[in-house]
Amino acid sequence: MTEARRAVVLLSGGLDSATVLAIAKRDGYEPYALTFRYGQRHEVELRSAARVAERMGVARHVVAEVDLRLFGGSALTGDLAVPKNRSPTDMGEGIPVTYVPARNTIFLSYALAWAEVLEARDLFIGVNTLDYSGYPDCRPEYIEAFERMANLATRAGVESGEPLRIRAPLLHLTKAQIIQRGIDLGVDYSLTSTCYDPAPAGEACGACDACQLRLKGFEGAGFPDPVPYSR
């Protein structure tokens, strides 16, 4: 039996990252999960990430501390209000205040550093360009550019003879397709958390962009969303 290849999987505790972790395991990788406590207002997702990592049996789960509240600039790390009840048209226009400046670049850089230590060639991230809130660091051009940079800026990329790869298997899927893929792989979505502005006990608000996209996805896939909502 061949030894499983190691991979670093960015695991937020949300629907997309849980699905990506399941895909990495299906494809024969030994996943090392990386989660961030970055000062996010929806810190409930950290508990979700721990539950998902334990249920899916990752090789190791690391929670990195990087406090992006130092800079602010986002409704997720500052005092700005999280937009609620936006229409699909509104969600499709511009970059919302829930965008965290350079977040995916910071996260992928940490993942890249860990991948070098692990001698892993693959980094998995759950970005998606179809049902998302307009974040610039979720686009395929961004993923391609970061992969090029990773192979220029690391000893692993320069000396190993095998390129580093940024795996984004959800990039061109709708939320409904992502959910169907996850259900086919046995993902327990009741363990996940997506809401940007959850109640103190963790119930999802049902009105932020993330909740609306999630609910639309479950409706399109024909399954009830198993997480509790406050409304």
Structure description:
With 231 residues, this protein is of the alpha/beta class. The protein has one domain: HUPs (Rossmann fold). It is built from eight helices and five strands. Strands 3-2-1-4-5 form a five-stranded parallel β-sheet, with helices on both faces. Helix 1 links the parallel strand 1 and strand 2. Helix 1 packs across helix 7 and helix 7 packs across helix 8. The longest helix has 16 residues. The protein is globular, with a radius of gyration of 17 Å. The mean pLDDT is 94.
Helix content bin? 25-40%
User: What is the tally of helical segments?
Assistant: 8
What's the end-to-end separation, in Å? 50 Å
* Total beta strand runs: 5
CATH class: Alpha Beta
Tell me the Rg in angstroms.
17 Å
Mean pLDDT: 94
Strand order of the largest sheet: 3-2-1-4-5
Shape: globular
CATH superfamily, by name, is: HUPs
Question: What is the fold's blueprint, element by element?
Answer:
Blueprint (H helix, E strand, L loop, with lengths): L4 E6 L4 H12 L2 E9 L6 H13 L3 E6 L22 H4 L11 H16 L3 E3 L15 H14 L1 H5 L5 E3 L7 H10 L24 H13 L10
Parallel strand pairs: 1-2, 1-4, 2-3, 4-5
